[in-house]
From TrEMBL, chains A, B:
It comes from Heterostelium pallidum (strain ATCC 26659 / Pp 5 / PN500). This is Alkylglycerone-phosphate synthase. One of its GO terms (molecular function) is alkylglycerone-phosphate synthase activity. Homodimer. Its cofactor is FAD. PANTHER family: ALKYLDIHYDROXYACETONEPHOSPHATE SYNTHASE, PEROXISOMAL. Its main location: other. The active site is at 515 (proton donor/acceptor). The lineage of its organism: Eukaryota, Amoebozoa, Evosea, Eumycetozoa, Dictyostelia. Residues 156-336 form the FAD-binding PCMH-type domain. Catalyzes the exchange of an acyl for a long-chain alkyl group and the formation of the ether bond in the biosynthesis of ether phospholipids. One of its GO terms (biological process) is lipid biosynthetic process. The record marks 371 as: Important for enzyme activity. InterPro entries: Alkyl-DHAP_Synthase, FAD-bd_oxidored_4_C, FAD-bd_PCMH, FAD-bd_PCMH-like_sf, FAD-bd_PCMH_sub1, FAD-bd_PCMH_sub2, FAD-linked_Oxase-like_C, Oxid_FAD_bind_N.
C-alpha cells in the first residue's frame, strides 16, 4: 500500500505517524504567524513537511515534500543496502524511530533573578520571552549527528532556561547590558543548522538565555548604486533572497544550509556558499556590521576596502557568538545575473576531474561553481534521483570509477558564453563527457536534500556524519585516498558496515574544499562512540595532510580539541585577551571556539569527550 | 648652458653640486655591496642618480636618470608657473636648496645597556650593527613632506640609537627577545617610503633600535602548483619581481612606492598596487606569515581559505609594526600574463569618466587597472612628458575639462581581447576618445616619477603633499569638488598660490580610491604650519564625506588624531588589549596607529601637533 500523505496541508489528520513522527508534531503548529523554530523539525533537518520514507510492501524509498507526495526514489534502497556493506553482506533497513516529543522530560528552568526578569519585562513583550518545553528543546542543539541522536533518544540535559526573540538592534543591546549585569549566559541562535555544537549550552552554573534572532528578518535598505544592502541578520536564506530580488539584486550566498540558516550565522561562522568561486565567501561579501558585546556595541565603517590600520571586521567573522551578537550587516550584493547555466559532466576518474579543475583554475577563467563528486558520491547522486533512467542505472550499477561534475556559469550572457567556451575546452581535453543541463537542473532542485536522507538513515539504524576541509592541490588526492581507506578499515575491522564518499565544492588558487560524507550502522544501543570515533579519525587525517580544521562548518565545541594543533598558541592568547576585554564575565557562548586554559592543561575534559558517554537504550 | 651630468657613473667628479646636491652625497657610496639605505636619497625620494633640475639659462626643467642625462621636460616649468597661481600672478622657481649632509649635527646615541650590547654581539656580526651618523639619519624618517622638510633643514631630534640589519627570522626572534628583556624600543624599517610617520622614533625615554629588514631579501621557495611563494619580507619590489619571474610567476603588487618599498612594509600597512582590481590588495595575496612579537612568534597556517574561527592574519595586516615584525610570508602569485595591454583614453569631463567607470564596474567585466585623472592632473600629466607633441600642447594649454584615463588589461590573450571589447564598448558610449597604447607605455615608464617632481619643487620654494581615501560612488564627486575648492580657498585667501589635482586609482563594487595631490608656495622660513593645515583640511573633508582615513598610505602618527572618529571606541580598546598581550612593555613602534589614552584625554598632544612647531630658518 502506498503511503497516503496530505500535500501542503497543515494541521490535518495525520496518517503517517509511525513512519514520520514529524508530521504528528506539525499538527500542533499552524504554519503562519509562528516563529521559525516552530516550523522546522525539532529532531531532524528542515521542513516538517518534507521527509523520506519507505513504501510498503515494496520497501522502495520515497520522498514527500510540501508540493509532491511520496515520489519514489527507485534506486536508493538498493544503493544503501549494497554500499553500506561488509564482506558482501547487504544491510537491512531496520526501523529505529525517534522518541516522540511528549515522551521527553526536561528539567525545569533555573530560577531567574527577579531583577533580571523585571528588566527583561521592560524591554520585551511577553510574546518575545519563551520558557515552554518546545521552545527550550528546539534551542538546545544544532543539527549534528550527535545533536540529532540525543534529541531522538530524549537526552536533553542543558536546555536553555529562557528563549528571547528580539526584534531590533536596540533590544539586543539592552538585553546584553542586562545579561552582563546579572551574569547571565547569552547564546546567539540563528537557524540552528550548525553541526559543531556551536549553540549548545554547555555550562551548568548560570542562567542561560538563547537569543533566537529570527524575528530580526528585515532588509532595511538596498543601495543599488553602491550595490550594498543593510540587513537584520536573523533573516533566513530564502527570505533574504526573496527580499533582495525585489530590488533586482542577490547576495549570491548559497550554502548547503541555505534554507534553514541565517545571515548572522553565516557571518559568525565564516560561511561559504555554492557559488563562492564567483561571488566570494561570506567575509568577502560583508562590508560592515554591528556587534553587540557585553561591554558595548562594536561598529564598523560602511565603505569599500581601506588600508588604515587593522580591519576589525575579521575579529568578529568566525567568532561564533563568543564575542557578542551581530545584529545588522551591510552586505555587498550584485545585480541578478542575466544568465544562469549549470551543466553536468562525467569524468573517467576522480584524477581526470581534478586535473581538469586545476587547469581551469590556472586558466584564470573560472566558472561560478565547480562541484566534483568522487565515484562513490557519483553513484549516490544517481541513485537518489526520482527517475530511473537507463543511464542512471548504468552508472549506479556498473561503473566504479566515473565521476560526476556539476559546473555552473552566472553573469551576463556574453560573459557566460566566453567562460563556457574556455572551460569546456579544458574539460574535453581531460576526457569529460557532457551530460547537458539536465544534471545541473537536478542538482539545483536537490541541492539541499542530503540532510533529509540522513534523517531517513537515522530512522533506519544507520548514522551519517560529514567532515570538510580546505586542502592544498598537492595534498588533495593523498588525503582523499587515506581518509576513505582509513574510515572503512576502522569500521569494517570491527564488523560494522561502513560507507564514505567525497566531493570537491569550492576552489581557490592554492587549494580546494574537500567534503566527506560517511556512514555506518548504528550500534544497537545508540551509544555515541562510533560517531565520535569517525569524527576523530577524519579530523586527525585532515590535519595530518595540512588541511584546515574546517572550510565552512566552523569550530563550536566539536573541533576545540584540535585547536591547539591548528592555531599557533600565541593566537590563542590573543583571542583570550580579546574575549576578556569585550566579554569580561564570559557570558557569550562560553567554552566554544577555543580551548579553555583548564582544557588545555588537562584539568578539564574537552566537551567533545564529555559528551561521548554511553547513552541509555531507546 | 646645458647641464653636464655623467650618466650611470658612480663616484666621479661632480659638476652639478649646486643644482643637485644628491649627486655629491652619492660620491661617498659605491653602488655595489652596500645596503639599500646607502643607495637612496637621504633627503628626498628614490635613486640618488635620478632627479629633476633646471637647464640654464632657458630655465627648462629636465630629468636625469641612471640611463639618460638631462632629458628636457619642455612644458613642465610653464605648467608649474601658470598653475601654481594666485590672481593670475605666475610663480617663480626660486632656489631653496637642502642643507648638506655634513652640515647636520645629531645627538650622540643614548648609552646602550652593556648586557643588551653583549647579547646583540652574540647574535649579529659587527657589520649588522650600525651607529654611524648616515645610518642613523637615514632611519629616522619616512618620505612625507614633513619628513623631507625636516631633513632638508637638518632638524633631526629623535634619530634611532642603533640600526640593526638582520639576515634571518631567527635573528629577529633573538633580537626581539633581547629588546624585550632590556626594554628597548624596536621599530621595523622596510623601504622607509611611508609618508605617515610610520617608522619615526617618537619617544625619548628609551634606547631605540631601527630594524632595517632589507637584508632579508630572499625568495625562499616558489610552489608553482599551489601558486604560492615564501619570501623574506625585507625584499624590495623590483628584486622580488625579478626573483619571481625566474619561476615564471608574479605577485602583481605594484604600488607607487614599488621601487623603494618592501613586502614587509606592504603587509604591515595594508598596501594596494596599481593592478589591484585584478590581483587584489595585499591582504588578498597574503596567505600566511610569521610575526615576531616580544612575547613570541605568531605563525599562521599556510593554506587556502578556511572558515574555522577567526582569521588572525588580519590582526597583523595593517598593524604597522606596533605588534611585532613580520619576517617571512607565503604569498599568492600568478603566472606571468600572456598579454599586457595599457591604453590611453580621453573623456570630455571627469563626470563622463566616472560614469564610464561605474558602468564598467557594474558590467562585471573589469580591466586590470583603470586610472582616471581629473582635468588638473591630466594637464600635469601632459606637461611632464619629455616630448612636446602638438596634442600635449593642445591639452596642456587650451582644454580645461578633459580627463585622461589609463586602462590596462592583463591575462591570457583571449581574456584580454574579451575584456577589451566589453570595456571599450562602454567607453565609447561615454564619449571616451581612444589614444592608443602610447599613453599606456608612457604611464608605465613614468608611473613612479611623481615624487621626483616633488623633490624638485622642494628645491624651488614649493611644497607638495597627498591625501588619498576610499570613498563611495555617491560621495565621490561631492568630495572631489569640495576638497579642491576648500584647499584652494584656504591658501589663496591667505595670499598663497596653491594647486590641487586628483585621480582615481582603484575601484571596488562600493567605491573607489580617490587620490589628491596638492601644493602651494613654501613660506619664507620653512615653517610647517602650511603642510599641517593642508593635511588637516583634507582629512577633515575626507571624513566628512564618509571616506576612509586612508586607502593605502596607512596611519602612522599622521592620522592618529582622527582615529577616534574613524574607528569605533570599542575597537580601540580591543586593539589596546591585543597590544598588551603581544607587547606588554610597548616596545614595538610606540605611539603609532592608535591614540594613547593620554592623547585621547587631552593630557598629551598628538604628535601631529607636537611636530607642528615653528622651525629655524635655513
Amino acid at each position: 500500500m502506498q503511503l497516503e500523505v496530505e500535500d501542503n496541508k497543515v494541521g490535518g489528520t495525520n496518517t503517517t505517524a509511525t513512519i514520520a513522527p514529524e508530521r504528528q508534531e506539525l499538527a500542533q503548529f499552524p504554519q503562519d504567524n509562528v516563529d521559525y523554530y516552530q516550523k522546522i523539525k525539532w529532531n531532524g533537518w528542515g521542513d516538517t513537511r518534507k521527509f523520506l520514507h519507505t513504501l510498503e510492501p515494496s520497501g522502495t524509498i520515497a520522498i514527500t515534500t510540501p508540493t509532491a507526495s511520496a515520489v519514489p526514489l527507485p534506486s536508493l534502497a538498493n544503493y544503501i543496502k549494497k554500499e553500506l556493506t561488509l564482506n558482501g553482506q547487504t544491510s537491512n533497513l531496520e526501523n529505529t524511530p525517534s522518541i516522540q516529543l511528549d515522551q521527553i522530560n526536561i528539567a525545569a528552568p533555573r530560577p531567574i533573578n527577579p531583577s533580571f526578569e523585571r528588566e527583561l519585562q521592560s524591554i520585551f513583550t511577553p510574546d518575545q520571552l519563551k520558557t515552554d518545553k518546545f521552545a527550550r528543546i528546539t534551542h538546545v542543539y544544532g543539527k549534528s549527528i550527535r545533536d540529532l541522536v540525543r534529541l531522538r533518544i530524549g537526552q536533553i540535559n542543558n536546555a536553555p532556561d529562557l528563549i528571547i526573540l528580539p526584534q531590533s538592534h536596540d533590544e539586543v543591546e539592552k538585553l546584553m547590558q542586562s545579561a552582563n549585569k546579572y551574569n547571565v549566559i547569552v547564546i546567539a541562535y540563528g537557524g540552528g543548522s550548525n553541526i559543531v555544537g556551536a549553540c549548545e549550552p554547555v555550562t551548568t552554573d548560570r542562567f542561560v538565555v538563547s537569543v533566537d534572532m529570527r524575528r530580526m528578518n528585515k532588509v532595511l535598505w538596498v543601495d543599488r548604486r553602491e550595490m550594498t544592502a543593510c540587513i537584520q541578520v536573523g533573516i533566513m536564506g530564502p527570505d533574504l533572497e526573496k527580499e533582495l530580488r525585489k530590488s533586482g539584486v542577490s547576495l549570491g550566498h548559497d550554502p548547503d544550509s541555505f534554507e534553514f540558516s541565517t545571515l548572522g550565522g553565516w557571518l559568525a561562522t565564516c560561511s561559504s556558499g555554492h557559488q563562492s568561486d564567483k561571488y566570494g565567501d561570506i567575509e568577502d561579501m560583508a562590508v560592515s556590521f554591528k556587534t553587540v558585546t557585553p561591554t558595548g556595541t562594536l561598529e564598523l565603517r560602511n565603505g569599500a576596502r581601506a588600508g588604515a590600520g587593522i580591519n576589525y571586521k575579521h575579529i568578529i567573522l568566525g567568532s561564533e557568538g563568543t564575542l557578542g551578537i551581530i545584529t545588522e550587516a551591510v552586505m555587498r550584493v550584485h545585480p541578478l545575473p542575466q544568465a544562469e547555466e549549470y551543466f553536468g559532466f562525467m569524468f573517467p576518474s576522480f584524477t581526470h576531474a581534478i586535473n581538469a579543475l586545476e587547469q581551469i583554475r590556472r586558466s584564470d577563467i573560472l566558472p561560478t561553481m565547480i562541484r566534483i563528486y568522487d565515484p562513490d558520491e557519483t553513484r549516490l547522486s544517481f541513485s537518489s534521483k526520482p527517475s530511473k533512467g537507463a543511464f542512471s542505472e548504468f552508472i549506479s550499477s556498473a561503473i566504479k570509477h566515473v565521476c560526476l561534475s556539476i559546473i555552473g556559469f552566472e553573469g551576463s550572457k556574453k560573459q557566460v558564453d566566453f567562460h563556457k567556451k574556455s572551460v569546456f575546452d579544458i574539460l574535453s581535453k581531460n576526457g569529460a563527457f557532457g551530460l547537458g543541463q539536465s544534471p545541473g537542473k537536478t542538482w539545483a532542485e536537490k541541492r539541499y536534500d542530503l540532510p533529509y536522507i540522513r534523517d531517513f538513515l537515522l530512522n533506519h539504524n544507520m548514522w551519517v556524519d560529514v567532515a570538510e576541509t580546505t586542502v592544498s592541490w598537492s595534498s588533495l588526492l593523498p588525503l582523499w585516498k587515506e581518509a576513505k581507506q582509513a574510515f572503512n578499515d576502522h569500521f569494517r575491522s570491527k564488523g560494522i558496515p561502513s560507507w564514505i564518499c567525497a566531493h570537491i565544492s569550492h576552489t581557490y588558487s592554492n587549494g580546494v574544499c574537500l567534503y566527506f560524507i560517511f556512514a555506518s550502522k548504528q550500534n544497537a544501543d545508540n551509544e555515541m562512540t562510533p560517531y565520535t570515533e569517525g569524527k576523530r579519525l577524519m579530523t586527525d587525517i585532515v590535519l595530518k595532510h595540512g588541511g584546515a580544521i574546517s572550510h565552512h562548518h566552523g569550530v563550536g565545541y566539536e573541533h576545540v580539541p584540535w585547536m591547539n594543533r591548528y592555531v599557533s598558541n600565541g593566537w590563542i592568547n590573543v583571542y583570550r585577551k580579546i574575549k576578556e576585554v569585550v566579554d569580561p564575565k564570559n557570558i557569550c557562548n562560553p567554552r566554544k571556539l577555543m580551548p579553555t586554559q583548564e582544557e588545555e592543561n588537562g584539568q578539564k575534559k574537552y566537551l567533545f569527550d564529555v559528551l561521548n558517554v554511553k547513552q541509555p537504550k531507546l
